[in-house]
Each structure stands twice: as C-alpha cells, then as structure tokens.
Amino acid sequence: MTRSVRDSAVMLDAVAGQDVGAYYSSPTKQRPFEDELERDPGKLKIAWSAVGPDSFETHPDCVAAVKHAAQLCTDLGHHVEEAVPQIPQKLSASLGEAFLNLIAIETAGDIEVFSDLIGREATCDDIEPAVWSYAAHGQKFSGVDALRFRRTLHSVARAVGPFFEDYDIYLSPTLGKPPVPLGNIDMSVSDWEAFFGNMFDFMPFTALFNVTGSAGVSLPLWWNDENLPIGCQFVTRMGGDGLLISLSAQLERAFPWHHRKPELCD
Description:
Elements: H1 5-15, E1 45-48, H2 60-75, E2 79-82, H3 89-118, H4 129-138, H5 143-160, H6 163-166, E3 169-173, H7 192-202, H8 207-212, E4 215-223, E5 229-236, H9 241-254
Parallel strand pairs: 1-2, 1-3
Antiparallel strand pairs: 3-5, 4-5
Helix pairs in contact: 1-9, 3-4, 3-5
C-alpha cells in the first residue's frame, strides 16, 4: 500500500481514531504514529517461524526471507528465537471451517445489500463467478451456525492472545510463495472451494491475524533471484501499531528498500 514506513505512519494518522457510533473500536494510540518513526523500539523479544502453527509448506525464498529478517533483528540487538503461536488441536481443526463459512454468510448478506443499492435482485451477471458460488454456499447456514462460527473465531483469538504476553513480536513470511503472475488468483472460476484453495496456498500466514485482530505489517526485507520482493510479516498484540511502526522504521534504516523495484515482465 505504501513504499515507505513514513507513508504508512502518515496514512494511519489520517484515518485512526474513534468512528463515532461504530460497534467496535481499536485501542487509542499513545502518540501520533509519525512520532514513532524516530522512536527507539527498545530491545524486543521476537519469535519467528517459517512454517507457522500449521507447518505450511513454505517456498524456500520465503524461508530465506524470514531467516534473513530474524538475523537482521538479532544484529539490531533484539532477542530472537524460534517459536510459534499454539492453538489447541480441536480448535485449530475447526478454524478453517469457521473462517470460510462465516465470510461466506457475510458475502451473501453483502449481495443482498448490493441488490438494494441497484434497485433489483443481483444476478450471476453482476458478480464474479467465484464470489457468486461462495455467496450461494453462505446462504445454506442458519443464524445459529453463524453464531457458532463466530464463537470459534473468538476462541482462537483468546488462544493466541497469551503468546503476545510472552513475546513482543511474531515474525513469519507474509506469503507462502513468491509473487504469482497476474491471473493466477482467478475470480472467474465458478468453484469457490478451488478459488480459496489456490488463494490460501499462496497466502496461508495472514488469515490467523485477520481473526485475532492483531496489528501487523509486511516489509520487503528480502529479494529473490528473480528480483521480486519477498515480504516478512511482523505481528504484535491488538493496538500495538505504534510499536510496529517504530520497529519497521528501524528495519528500514538498516535495510532500505525504497530504491528497489521489480522488473516488469512481458
């Protein structure tokens, strides 16, 4: 979304704060995010993993990126060790189902809202095939099902929360493989399960923290042999955006990337 940590800090300052009347609100920031850019993050306790809690089959480029980032953090004086958030096996087994089915329910609801906005019932001609089949899947569930799925996600967040009492930061790959060509994530397929299977094979590391509400950032701290940026995901507890900006700015000064751009392909 941005090419520098400064731009991210300024953007967050522009949009952060209480949305009056909103059902949820993020914790109040301690100071302007722009002020965090020059602030020393202190010596942090950082956990890292290249495979995540589910032992993903991570591409070697993404493994190399995380190991490089872990060493960079060590060189900056942080305490770094290999560790990963633990989720009870029974809860972990139901996480994927709850995550996908709850979003399917919300997608079905969004199409109803869209129908109201356009003044007629939406049809398959209005919606990408992958989304249309996903919404049809969401229509199969009851309100009780939706509540059960949401409670599962809340339980996952509670299971992960204590990890950030032991560690300040969790470091992992952002993606499971290097950037894929345009069209690889294809919403024109009519099978939502095939679509999401392909997508999660590409990006298995971020969904957990969509569930927990943790603050996160992706930094291009490694470039592979094809001159493609390989992102490293740094995560902390909810509301810890200021700490992430402070650490990110420190990493950017140590390993700048703004001058690098991937080559365009034909």
